[in-house]
Design goal:
384 residues, mainly beta, Jelly Rolls, 8-stranded mixed sheet, 8-stranded antiparallel sheet, globular
């Protein structure tokens, strides 16, 4: 996240002696996802973060291919994903390409191990449930409607408050940023941005665990999980500072941009990465031109696959929408409002819809897990 933040105790100067009360040096760690030339943070550990006791055999977590070349409008019932106790096992990849993986999860229990994804930033959208993300940077409480952004290489645990949890997960193989057009040359969010730094929640509570033992850490690299056992507790950081850290942003804090006539989807953009964007569709006033047509017009996805994840509210352009439903409109063919919705929507003043959209600029593949959730007849829903 492009602003400076710090927690805990740090020395006055970088790369200088920093000792505990007994005179023992803390271990400094540079944390950066793009080497030494981009954003970074410096962390100070009680124990060196390099002491590995054991490495067990890796195993595959690659999604199984269902449909490789999709050229059909699709719909998936996301809440049909069955709850599972374990957080990682509950993650079911539905759609993917070389830039992103889009998954659904319904975990029932908190993690009793640690996890680190070294290849991808992760965006967790909390559809149901609440809890705490625990990391070496500190803790972030989350709840309904939160986007939780976890930079690659971050070691984390999630503590859920109850068993009823539903997550939409985007795994990005490039860093997740706020849209460039909303930022000035220094990284500050500008006046026309639909949110600002006040809305962003960095870690607040730093828990320093000066403990030794055996700590299980599952590391994802590529499509493999590597089980590591470390000697020191992963959350032994006494302090840190920098520009790279996990953070949360509530979809309820997104301020929609509206106009006299219908505004195109880019006004809803919330995040971006390589070859994709994420948008937030939030409660808002409709267009106020006297002849305005509030329902979105037909449009052709010439160069992007459009994924819409429905969270809550009524969608005037769609019929039979349910919570947790995912629609996929592939590039190359047009889509638009369902029959009857355009005339029905004329005169409407506002909408209470809530949804997350992910547009990818390369085609998405459908997994076997996705096929289990798919409505085969969705493409017929535009017929009278």
């Amino acid at each position: 996240m492009p602003f400076y933040h710090t927690l805990g105790k740090i020395p006055h100067k970088r790369h200088t002696q920093f000792r505990n009360k007994k005179g023992v040096l803390y271990s400094e760690e540079l944390f950066s996802t793009e080497g030494f030339s981009s954003m970074l943070s410096l962390l100070y550990h009680v124990h060196p973060p390099t002491k590995v006791l054991k490495i067990d055999k890796s195993y595959s977590v690659a999604p199984e291919m269902g449909i490789e070349n999709n050229m059909q409008h699709r719909s998936f019932q996301g809440f049909q994903v069955k709850p599972e106790k374990d957080y990682l096992k509950s993650r079911k990849t539905v759609l993917f390409n070389n830039d992103v993986m889009i998954s659904l999860a319904a975990p029932q229990e908190s993690m009793n191990y640690f996890y680190k994804n070294v290849n991808g930033d992760e965006m967790l959208f909390i559809h149901k449930g609440e809890g705490t993300l625990k990391t070496q940077f500190g803790n972030i409480d989350f709840g309904y409607g939160d986007y939780v952004i976890i930079p690659r290489g971050t070691t984390y645990q999630i503590e859920f408050k109850n068993k009823d949890n539903r997550l939409l997960i985007l795994e990005s193989f490039s860093p997740i940023y706020t849209p460039r057009r909303y930022r000035n040359e220094f990284g500050q969010l500008l006046e026309h941005s639909p949110f600002c730094e006040r809305d962003i929640r960095p870690p607040k509570k730093l828990e320093t665990h000066d403990e030794k033992g055996e700590y299980k850490l599952l590391i994802k690299k590529g499509m493999l999980l590597f089980p590591y056992t470390y000697e020191a507790h992963p959350f032994d950081v006494i302090g840190w500072d920098g520009f790279v850290f996990p953070w949360a942003f509530s979809i309820h804090d997104f301020e929609p941009i509206t106009g006299r006539v219908h505004q195109p989807p880019p006004v809803h953009q919330t995040f971006e990465g390589r070859n994709y964007v994420v948008c937030s569709f939030c409660p808002r006033l409709y267009d106020y031109h006297p002849l305005a047509i509030p329902v979105p017009y037909n449009h052709s996805n010439i160069d992007s696959d459009e994924v819409l994840y429905y969270v809550a509210g009524d969608f005037m352009s769609r019929k039979h929408v349910t919570q947790g439903q995912i629609t996929l409109h592939p590039l190359g063919i047009p889509h638009g409002p369902h029959p009857g919705t355009v005339e029905k929507g004329i005169g409407a003043k506002s909408t209470e819809e809530l949804a997350v959209m992910i547009d990818t600029f390369h085609p998405l593949k459908i997994t076997k897990e996705g096929l289990k959730l798919m409505d085969e007849d969705y493409y017929l829903s535009w017929l009278e």
